[in-house]
């Protein structure tokens, strides 16, 4: 059932491509990080509604972020980045206060060193406890005077499964546990998943993971159960600032375009949409973002590509190698009567 | 780099890191560690959840396939000892493979869920069905070899004996798939080192499978019958080494996952062993059984290390965000300059 652009490239209706007929419109999340206040209500609401177990209670040293990453037991993750620069024309109001520069650069070095020796390089964050040895560093500004006071801004962003138009996890799943819903979202069926782990390596965003105690892969379902009952997902419902907006993807994209234009006009030229473009490496995300810095600053890949894009080239080379093996095996027996 | 800190292009939230850092490797990296930005140096991707069992399977699966091909050839050219070694060894390697694959699952008791669907977009599903097609022939041919004399004389024994050749040939038919699909399995992932090497990896793995199967033949069959095994060993080893070197020479930052640290040391050791095995096959192994066995063991060990080295290169490339951010940034930059298509 390989239609045009089933594996990569722009695809207007992934649900129909997966075989759904008379399906509801594709829905998604637009996460506008410019209004995120870092309350983590989305993380909590998600855990509560979906009965997601504990992912480890550790202090990570990543500003106010002690979740660290999306994982099998963290389906929403709020990132915190401290930067020595103003947000647009905003005055941080720090000029007369006894504060110093943000400590992000120092903490990053400390945390990164701890991550290097952590299990899976810290990839277990969001899935299982990761002990980074309680990263410690001097208090920002403790040893400095007025001269080092700087501008300051705090970036916060609630990350989530992107529900890609071309989902790497779904493409490579060998059991059919992962499937495309009628809403165009991507969901794992826990009663089918046998924990092969292929989806973990198939995801170009590092979202889905295997839960060690349980052996199965887990990720955001965009509250499939709530969608079927006509409710919005728990995280969007709980978000007090409408940073997480839920709705038909077409509407969200229009709204995001307007918001981006407004921010650019308001003097925030660094605002950018991430995952909005249906022409990108995954055919556009079902959950996309407005960011105030480059994606990698938030831990997101700058230009992700679905591995399935290379499927034809991969099998072509596998076929060539297999043919060469057949030829070589035959040739070694055909060479003269020499034993 | 003088005044490194001063010329860092990004000061905020940036983390300077790179491969070969603090991993005990003494190699000087060829590409200077460039500055890139990340989220507290945290990985962007989830490193594979697969542990040693998967690279071990890459070896045993390839070994089984190589041995099955050799056994079929030996059967058709009347080399009974080489045939026996290939059939029995190939099936034994298949049984080990099955164990490794099932044991690696998070829910081993659900292994049969792999048989619910046939999904061309999933190399693991394709591989499952290749193994399903391959296994009966391998099992039947090996059983025929191992029958005790008393059973062999009975009717079922005679029928099994008749079925052995078609069974062995059917295994040989699917063996090239078994030997090479694993390259697709690794390449069709977001793991930078595996995905980047998708043109070379099938040849590394097919060559490695041929070399290991041939190594088994050299180890277990008499010198007089093992000439095809020796030749296959040489061809397989040459293919593996050349393809593996091509990976090392690929342009781009991701290649460092192969050329630095532990993956590099494993693959270099593999190269020496494989080369040694191939040279032995060309020379001493033609006369001495002991030398043949040593050469065979070298080929087998070379294949094991190749699989583990390739596997670990992939894991390394997911743990360090540099392998994800740097190439993707470069791609975006080149695209914005109109140098690269989507």
Main features:
heterodimer; A: 339 residues; Alpha-Beta Plaits; 4-stranded mixed beta sheet; two-stranded antiparallel ribbon; 9 helices; 13% strand; B: 342 residues; mainly alpha; Formate dehydrogenase/DMSO reductase fold; 12 helices; disordered N terminus
Element-by-element helix/strand order of chain A: HEHEHEHEEHEEHHEHEEH
**What is the residue-averaged pLDDT of chain B?**
90
Overall pLDDT level of chain A: 90
Just name the CATH architecture of chain B.
Up-down Bundle
Gap between N and C termini of chain A, in Å? Answer: 50 Å
- Can you say what the CATH homologous superfamily of chain B is? Formate dehydrogenase/DMSO reductase domain
Q: Please write the CATH class name of chain A.
A: Alpha Beta
Percentage of residues in strands of chain A: 5-15%
> What characteristic shape of chain A results from the CA principal axes?
globular
Which residue ranges of chain B are poorly predicted, with pLDDT under 50 across at least 5 consecutive positions?
A: 1-34
Quaternary state, please? heterodimer
For the largest beta-sheet of chain B, the strand count, sense and barrel status come to: 2 strands, antiparallel
Helix content of chain A: 25-40%
Taken from the alpha-carbon principal axes, the silhouette of chain B is globular
Strand arrangement within the widest β-sheet of chain A reads: 8-1-10-9
Number of discrete domains of chain A: 1
Question: What is the structure about, briefly put?
Answer:
The complex is a heterodimer of chains A (339) and B (342). Chain A is an alpha+beta fold and 339 residues long.
What does this structure look like?
The complex is a heterodimer of chains A (339) and B (342). Chain A has nine helices and ten strands. Chain A is of the alpha+beta class and 339 residues long. Chain A has a four-stranded mixed sheet with strand order 8-1-10-9. In chain A, a hairpin with a 5-residue loop joins strand 4 (178-180) and strand 5. Chain B has helices spanning 53-76, 80-104, 123-146, 149-153, 155-187, 192-196, 201-220, 227-248, 256-259, 261-282, 289-319, 322-336, and strands spanning 14-15, 36-37. In chain B, 61% of the residues are buried. A two-stranded antiparallel sheet of chain B has the order 1-2. By secondary structure, chain B is mainly alpha-helical. Chain B has one domain (53-331): Up-down Bundle (Formate dehydrogenase/DMSO reductase fold), CATH 1.20.1630.10. At the A-B interface, strand 2, helix 3, helix 4, helix 5 and strand 6 of A face strand 1, strand 2, helix 1, helix 3 and helix 5 of B.
